[in-house]
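## Example pair
The file below holds two records. Each record gives the amino-acid sequence first, followed by its structure token line.
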Amino acid sequence: MWLSRCRLWRWLLACFIILLIANIWFVPWTKITKHGKVTNSYEQQLQATRKARSFQDIQREKYDTIVHRNTSESNKKSIRSSADDFSKEFEINIKLGRWDSNQRFKYFDFVVIGDRFEELSDMYSVSLATQSSLERLYSLAEVSHHWTAAISVSVFIVGEDFFLTEIYISYLRQCFTEVRERVTFHLAYSSEYPAASDYPSLVVNRTQNCSHPKQVLSELVALRSPETVDWLNSYEYPQNHLRNHARKNCQTPYVFLTDVDIIPSTGMADALDIFLTQQNHTNLCAYVIPAYELHDSVTFPENKSEILQIIEKGLARPFRRMVYKNGHFPTNYEKYTKCWPPAISSKSCRLYSPATGASQSKASVTQTQE
């Protein structure tokens, strides 16, 4: 009997020691809440970490949600993107750009080079130079479709726009062959609101809609922080700095200087190339190309005959004629409409014959010179 009691006490003592060790081991990992609920402190640490995540991480989750939205199978193109894909677009050190003379803007040249940019610069005597902020980059899909020569684009970025612009340029290059082949991108930012590139790696497998570049871009622009939006709304957009940035990176004797939402006429690059190579300039010279606003109900005109018919029907008018007439005062619209046929060899028409279509802003062709 005594031996049995000793064995029982030894068994109870062993159980007590085991429980004591277990309690010491697990107590730091558990906590009793005010409501008596046991919670795991690791889970609490994880929740705290999630609450303290950076803005960029949260934005990335929103982006992942956006890009996984369902779209119809008829207008989707499968794109598999990863962090490696994105990193290959912008292979730059954001701190090692080139300042302007007043150190107001930092420039980055040839950040993404079109596959045929060098070849097209040798083939044509004229390049298209333009500038844009993130929210207008969708126009490049149509611009590059109409303009068959090289295109130089300076993109203004602030804050997280560096990351968002990189994603959208990757999207454009994968969806649109013309963008991938013809367009070379340069970047610029203001010293007042520098671009930030310290983002963790992102791996996203998604099916992206290549039929609606404007919609895809709108969803990306919506990921901007409120601070970035407020700063952009109060800042005077440096369009002339960006125009010069794009112009100076062209590799051709002549430059078609335009805004990104201008849609060049069909065949304009070839027509300008022929026209400009036939000229013999001893001094600097600029040719003004007329621009028109088109009614939403008309299709893009293929030639001058079609644009004149649209003008006659009252469905096209000189750009911003009703807003700021003096803004396009140098354009002689009357001479352009009366000059027919548009023979490039005709002296009376030669200033305007290359413009055989419509656009949404004025533009000019200039000879490049520092």
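Second record, same layout:
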Amino acid sequence: MLMRRKVVLQILIVLYVLLSYEGVQGEIKLSKVEDLELKKQFKLLNKPAIKIIKTKYGDIYDCVDFYKQPAFDHPLLKNQNFHPKMKPTLARTRQNSNTSATNWSSSIWLKERGCTFGTVPIKRVTKDDLIRHRRIPSPEAISSEVQFININNNSDPKRSYISSQGYKLASAQVQNNPNNKFSGAGMTSSLWNPHVEGQQNSACRLKIQKGSDILQVGWRVDPTLYKDNKTRLFVHFQAGNTHCFNALCPGFVLVNTGLPVDMVFDEISHRGDQQMAEITMFIDRDLANGNWWLLIGENHEQVGFWPQAIFTDLASFATNVEMGGVAYSPPGVPEPPMGAGCSLAVDPRYDAYCRRPNVLNDKGKTIPNECPT
């Protein structure tokens, strides 16, 4: 009987350790000051909804008045003359392009097909979300030794696979030259759902940068950010010491009524598919005012923009462009897979890829280059 009690006690101790570990993963104890700060952030992010819409994946979005979206809480955006009908002046898109949601974004909604004109979809944030977001790792180091593509000659493109502060990168990068003047970049990426656990994440992204200012768009699997393991769209910006994802802090101005920046992708690639699921994405600088626009899809769907006013370095042109995969794991945790999650087969039906990469010069024209396809 005594032996049985000891065994039971040992089992309980093991269970306690395991559950405590999960508790660390899922719970963070807050001080009174932190709790007050959290409540303030909660109130700022959850704006009054004109209408509430849901996706078939269970996400709740508030259709928020364009002028009351979180972006305009930024102190530098208080007196801007932005409006819902804004159109960028871009070399690669038609001025009369439709801002309605694309077919593949419309398919995510349960009943509605997005928000009504004059409102934008903002994902409802819970207190648990905000607590969980405190575990989001710091961004990658701004300076890292990455092999690059030289756009000024016909040398073979080089790819990098490096490690930086828990991050693993498999990417191609234009040489970071302070004399570069890039007004945008774009690519098409296959969509995958790599397996991640805990605080791991895995993504594919397009990234442009100058100094400490960075813009990113892509897809990612990130339980810490999204509370699930679905493949979702993401945007991220860094302006000096400020950085955040999607609409979780003031900065990114949404104009699209039906395409949220954190939406779930309906279709995902599987190894051996004859036709891979893809996303085409662009970040382009408005030639008229310096705002950086996010465009999605073959028809250059205008999703929204990062205003020039919030940047210092990217108030002008970018000097660096990078595209490819990135994965993160906390210290002591094995790295998660990227993309297809398997060894390279050198076959687009089995490998994750980025194709049709392009970089724009300061006139908005594509620079001839030998980027990887």
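Notes on the second record: The first helix runs from residue 2 to 26. The chain has five helices and 16 strands.
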